[in-house]
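Recap quiz, item 2
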Amino acid sequence: MARTEPFQIRIADLRERYRPQREWAEGRGLLLILAHFFTGAGAGAWLFAVPLGSDTGLVAGFFLAVLGAVGHLFFLGRPERFWRMATRMGSSWISRGLVGLSLFLVTAFLYLALLFLAAHTTTLGSILLALSMLGALWTIIYKGFVWASSKGIPLWNTPLVPALYIAYALRGGAAVLILLAGLGIQLGAWEPLEPIKLWLAVSTAVLVLIYLEVMRGSGMTALRSVNLLLFGKVALPFYLGAVLLGLIVPIGIGSFAYLDHIPAGLLALVGLLSLLGDLSIIYCIARAGLYRPLPT
Amino acid sequence: MVIDLKKCIGCTGCALVCKAENATPPGILWLRVVKHETGKYPQVRRVSVPLQCMHCAEPPCMEVCPTGATFQHPNGIVDIDAELCVGCRYCMMACPYDQRFFLSAERTYFPGHTTPFEQAGYQRHQAGVVSKCNFCTPRLQRGLEPACVANCMSRARTFGDLDDSNSEVSKLIRDRAGYQLHPELGTNPSIYYLPP
Amino acid sequence: MQTENAQEDLWIPTTCGLCYSVCALKVHRVNGTVIKIEGNPESATNRGRLCPRGVSGIMLLYDPNRVNVPLKRTNPNKGLDVDPGWKEITWEEAIDTVAERLRKIRREDPRKLLMTGTVTTQDEVPFSRFFTMAFGTPNGWNSGAGNHCGTAEHLYGALLHASWAKQPDSDHCRYLLNFGSGVGSGSYYTVTGMAQRIAEARLRGMKHVAVDPFLSPSAEKADEWIPIRPGTDAAFALAMLNVLLHELNVYDAEYLKHHTNGPYLIGADGSYLRDETEKVPLIWDPVDAAAKPFHSPEIKDFALDGVYAVDGQRARPAFAVLKEHLAPFTAEWAEPITTIPAATIRRVAKEFAEEARIGSTVVIDGKALPYRPVAVMYFKGAQGHKNALLNCMALELLTEIVGASNVPGGLLGMNSCSVGEPETGQPAWIPKADRDGLMITGYWPSFPPPYPPKEVRATETIDLRGLIPTCPGSSGALPVVMADPKRFAVPYQIEMNLHLGSNYLMTFADPEAVARAFQNVFQVSFALFLDESTYLSDIVLPAASYLERLSHTADWMSSNAAVGEWCYHVRQPVVDPIAQRRSVCEVLLELVERLEMREEFYAFINLLLKLKEPHMLDPTRCYSWSEIVDRRYKSVFGEARGLEWFKKHGVLKWPKQAEEVYWKPSSSARVPIYFEWFKTLGEKVKAQADEIGIELDTSAFQPLPEWRPCRAHEENSPGYDFYAIYYKLPMQTFSGTYDNPWLDEVCQTNPFAYGVAINASAARQRGIEEGDWIEITSVATGHTVRGQAALTEGIHPEVIAIAGCGGHWSKYLPIANQDGKGLCFEWLIPVGLDNVDIPSLTQDTCVKVKVVKATDRGSKRSSRSSRLNDLNHLNDLNPG
């Protein structure tokens, strides 16, 4: 069978009544998934690291976001023209996102530079920190709206998606810090995160359930997509990645930790699994995206 | 544009004359024809439906485009300036009609060989950007109808001004109860179908 | 296209060559490169439009897989999958080899030469036939005859419509009863013109009732689809005739009396009663109560009914005999055969009868003409069966009984009558009557036409057409006779095949059996591609495609629709032949010189192209191909409109007159509704066959229609519970377009183009889901083909339908030969006389198959024979 090239698969898809979107999930589309994951987790980590005073967390958050930005860049068909994407702030969430992410990366970089070079707080540093937090918040918020504003894919085309993405980004950020702590390279106090993390994991699980339930009732195409997630070709990454690794295990361990002290290794595992879960959910929702049937 | 599904025989001539006119590379199908079946044996209906960019009056693709590459001509035609496109494919996710195609890399129909036709025609297509039907804007500028209209072998297609209530297209839509695809999305497509 | 900097920017008028419709083109060439092919709006043939194949011709022109140089086989073993080991040779060597072979054969027995062609090359094949005639061989084979062409259908074209093919009157028809033909939906004749005309007719309100096992591209466009069991169309038609004549009492008496042999008196032996002196058929005049010669000026009326005593003999009008013959074929009789409810048959018959509007007239060009706006169409689907002759007869009689033949609104011969271009009065032909008053065609693409009946001769040809002269076209018996000529008392064997662009291994029946017949033949192929059939070739010559060659191609009936305008075109090269490709006609002219047969060849050209002085060819000098084309044009259209005029203008056209289109009311030629001579002809065939010593079932040589089961209806092996049928697609022509990547792309977006249509419920009962790979095994050949299931409600539950001619296996067709590019239906149909309708030599094309879900992907076909790859070991030809 020679029809394995993406463009050949796309042709074959056109026969189908419910056609999967593949550009934002398969092949180089995986870069986009990774980019969304890394920028989300990075920005989340930054947001948590600031109040916790974790410099390692800041550094990790920054570099994750850089990694994500690189992923975004190389996902583009024409990376050299990336700057053009900032020109439609009025209507396009990608434009808005690029501005937010750029704000975050630039101010975060300057802040970190200042932090490590000057090694003491300045007014400039405070301004940069404030701006970077704004950028990070912006980054966390815009991502969900990019997916949600995609009119072609009913599974995404709901306000629940931004909520979900914000929750996952925050959770991811917390998970990064927990992972660092588990690995023993956390500098600041991480303990306050533990209940937050658990709370985030539980609420994310509830949010996912609500999301799937709402989408089941949002027309045939969304229902098909949900079926793909629950029973179809995306079921394996969904149950294994998003549900088991991403929700059940972390919640389980988190609940256990609530009662007793948690060993560092297990802590790292919770962080790592949560992150894998975050990545999985982004991937699964992207993979399950279907276009509406045509002609009707 | 009005497409008369009673006349259309689903031959795919439009899909290929589009390819010939626009020299679209492999896998880039600005126009396709799908079969839609309803009913149970023996009361069955199968209809051929040509699909292409609907040139929505309210194009979701244009709204999401982060660079302004997707734009609307004053006559309503939705077009892409390939020089501005970064290939983020956001528009592909936004188009409810799944009518946009991304050319990931330069390729030819015969692997390892570029025909003289492709040598001449593929200059118009850059890799890494999204493309779609533009109602043959270069033909319109020369006073010709879009290639799919001019070639349709059952004369199922009529091209004209939807804003002019006396135009042939407006009359057809009125007289034959023309309809748009997925009108509930508020995109207000410029392609109307006449019932089979 | 960016043409600003072009040094050259031309639109060249020419004609398409991708099917027999021969549409008019305008080809856009910029700086030597073809960048667009459009329909020529000047021509009425396609009115500026093109089908998907037509616009994709660019990819054929520039396909790197085309044959570009002459090739010689190096592997002495021949087989379906045996690589010939091609070696490049010079044209000189190739021509030397071919000429030497031909010279030897011509010296020994010229009949040892066969020519196989395809109907898509309307220019080269007819010209090559002149070559073979001059050479001295009667043997030719249009290989599409297996699955794609008509045979019996064309016979009735000649007998009833004075034309090769027919179409409904798209301008006036109101009720089209279509037994599976693709008219107006992207196949059948004048594809592009008829698509427009029938689309207009739909809007005008013509009701289209499709009787078809599959909701095919044609049936999709019908107002009503009536699924029928394959091969039972005649039972449906007979039941309709029964309802018309025995329940509704509807028939066009005036038409039957004056334009058919309905009033001819039939004696007890089934033959005409003839008068003593002139020996012409008699009719009964009920006014004078006397028998009179059919053409007597004293006839006051014609009896259609009753029993009369003439010279002591009991006699009845043919119509009365027909009516009585139809009595048992009730709707209830047809129901279990066709699976169509009797009530549906009655309703359709009633609608048909009412819409025929017998007695009504319409004024066209100032003349009142009978108005019968109903037509019955069919083509390969209904005719491609074991009982082809009698099946087609039943279908045709529906049109005849209501008088809808070649009148406004009815079924029209495709160019039965031409009074010629206004200035020259040419080309002209008109149907005329023989001594019995029955019609002889005015024009027929081969000689002589099927009526008057030809003599029965035993051993002349390699395809039984000498013995069975009712076969009007290509014979389904050829591979059978060719494999064992002695058995049929043919005193020679085919030694050489001039092979012109037909892929006969994939367009007839069981490729293995066909290959067996051809394996010992020295084959010279003029080829565009190294397709499956060239695996058996010894020499392959690179042929110029239709875009690279010249011809006066289009003056064949099939490029002009029945209505509208007359159009004559030119085919001219839009680019010089690429690489070493050459026009077949030019190569043949060179061979004529090499073989020193110029005198005979020119004589045939002068005769068959109807060249006139001063444009006749003079054998003392040698003419180029373009000179011959020029002389042809000038002979027909006058001095001013030679080749140069046509190259410049592309099209010569003028309007058709009403009496050309609706010629029947003014014609004195009658058509048969009682095929009297079939019976005696059959007796002669039987006698001759007995003499040769071959067993031949001649029982179908009958004057009146009958339904008889196909092999498939009676083959009831357990598990073989589907009928497999074949149908055409609007985006492929036979097997020859499958390497075109554009057509491939649109086929991939269509679930049926490369898949196997199967009833959704029937499939699920067998655990088969959409897209599953299934194995289809023929009860008749044992071969298995594989494809992907395309589940649909739009197919009879007993049927699977395979589109087109995919499933290629030549390694030189890299696009077509991949898995999942369709199926080769022919593997399922056996070769053998028991699978052929004897009177018309039509190949039966329905077969019982077993359908199972494939357990693995496997290869695209398998066979019970493990010897598939080496035909040299296969000598056990099933004699059939």
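Chain A touches chain C through eight residues (CB under 8 Å).
The domain at 20-287 of chain A is CATH 1.20.1630.10 (Formate dehydrogenase/DMSO reductase fold).
End of item.
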